[in-house]
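Researcher: We're teaching a course module on how sequence relates to structure. For the next exercise, students receive a sequence and then see the predicted structure as C-alpha cells, so they can try to spot secondary structure elements on their own. Here is the exercise chain.
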Amino acid sequence: MPDKVELSVIIVNYNGAAYIPECLESVLKSEDVLFEVIVVDNASPDNSLSVLERYRDRVKLIASPVNGGFSAGNNIGIDASSGDYVCLLNNDTVVNPDTLATLLNYLKQNSSVGAVGPKLLNADGSPQYTGSVLGHWQYKTGKARKVGFLSGAAFMTRRSLLDQIGGLDENYFFYNEDLDLCKTILKAGYTLVYLPTAELIHFGGVATATRKAASIIEGYRGGLYFCSKHYPKAIFRLYQFILGLYFLIRLAIYFPFSVFSDHYQDLFRAYLTCWRILLKNDLTLKKAKQKTAAAKDR
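Model: And here is the predicted structure for the students to work with:
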C-alpha cells in the first residue's frame, strides 16, 4: 500500500471466503488512483480469516471478535482509514480496473455531490437495478444522473462528509443502512449521483443467503426504524398499521403449514417476532455496539 493515499476502500466481510478473493484481486488491480484497502471481518464462522491472511501484506485486515453488523463494521473501517475519500464496497463485487478512478474523479470535480455510485451488473453482464421497481427508471441512462438512492454495494463519498454526519447509523444490523445513509446525505444538502460510466459486477446476497428468517426480521425492524427516524409521526403510524395487517396475514398463512414444515415454522416465527417488535415499538438494535477498540488489528 502507498504511504499517501487519497482513497480508502472499505470492505466488510461476513462468511465471504468464497467471494472475497475475487473481489480483492479486482480492487488491487485498480488503476490511476492511490488507495488503501481495509477489510473488516465481522467474526465470520467460515474460513474467511485464513483466506484473508494471504492478503495481509496488501490490505489492512481488522478482525472483529463480534459481528456488530454492516454499519458498525463499516464505521470501524472508516475510523481506521486515511484517505480523503471513502468507498464502501461489498465483498461480493468485482470492479473494473478503471471503476474506482472514474468514481473518484467525478467526486473531485463536483463539490456539491455527496456520494456517487457505479452501474451494477449481474454475473451475466445484465444491468442490476437498485431500490423499488418504481425507481428503476433513474438508472436506465448512459449519463451521470442525480438520484434519490444509491446501493450500498458500492458507495463512494468524502471522509469529511462521513465525519460530519457521524458515520453509518449502527441501529441497522444489515439492510436499510444504505437507504439511511443516502437520506442523511440528502438532508445535509448534498446530491447523490449515479455514474453508469463506472461499472462493477455485484453477485448479491452472500452474507444473508442462509439467514432468511433473520433477514426478514432485520429488514422490517430496520424499515420501521428508518421510517420513525426520517418521517413525521403520522406517516410512521400509517406504516405501522399497514405492516401490522400484513404480518397478521402472513401469520395466518404460515401457521397451518408450520405444523408440518421446518421452513414454514421458521417463517412463522420470523413474522411473529416482527409482530412483537411492532407491538412493543422496539426498533433500536439491542446488541452492544461494536467498538473500534474491541477489534483486533491483525
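Model: If you want an answer key for the exercise: The longest strand covers residues 191-202. DSSP finds nine helices and ten strands in the chain.
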